[in-house]
Amino acid sequence: MNWGAFEGLLRNVNVYSTAFGRIWLSLVFIFRLLVYLVAAEKVWSDDHKDFECNTLQPGCTNVCFDHFFPVSHIRLWALQLILVTCPSLLVLMHVAYREAKEERLREIQGDNYRPIYANPGKKRGGLWWTYLLSLIFKAGVDVVFLYIFFRFYRNYTLPRMVKCKLPPCPNVVDCFISRPTEKNIFTVFMVAITCVCVVLNLIEATYLIGKRCHERLEAEGGH
């Protein structure tokens, strides 16, 4: 996947984000995407190759690896990054739709043109709901993946050695995981950053709702 192009699209979302949204994007780029590309992929590149069991029984090592690593950390993180950033692209598409609509009206009405949106990127009406729902969806995706990681890898950690007795293993065999300490450090780091991102999304959603309520109260008080 071309992560550079993906990053370029997301940077455009900064224009329409609040201060909390910009902090969230910075965390995603610096502490999640860059860590994933620069370090995490290399750390997990040998997870299957260097997963060793003390048996020569054909198929035993593969079966045990699949049991203890049902889904690779790195693939889960890639899927999580894609799902958690797609809602931001929807906001960008909504703004682009507003701008295209304004352009069509300008061409049709000519000198009689009157803009529908004073500022197509201003979070009002449908765009406000799109932005708010994107925040809730992003927080929800991160929470779901935190739960998935916890279910697959208890306490988000990997042991140095696991015991496996699945067929076709002839008996209980000892299997050794490659670089578990290094992988645990990266896992805890990614989990911590994910938690921070969830908190930022919830704070931003609260800020948007609070700001809208405040504007409504001011408008009602002015009449």
From TrEMBL:
PROSITE patterns, alphabetized: CONNEXINS_1, CONNEXINS_2
Assigned GO CC terms: connexin complex
Protein's UniProt keywords contain Cell membrane: yes
Family: Belongs to the connexin family.
Subunit annotation: A connexon is composed of a hexamer of connexins.
Function: One gap junction consists of a cluster of closely packed pairs of transmembrane channels, the connexons, through which materials of low MW diffuse from one cell to a neighboring cell.
Protein name: Gap junction protein
Species: Prunella fulvescens (Brown accentor)
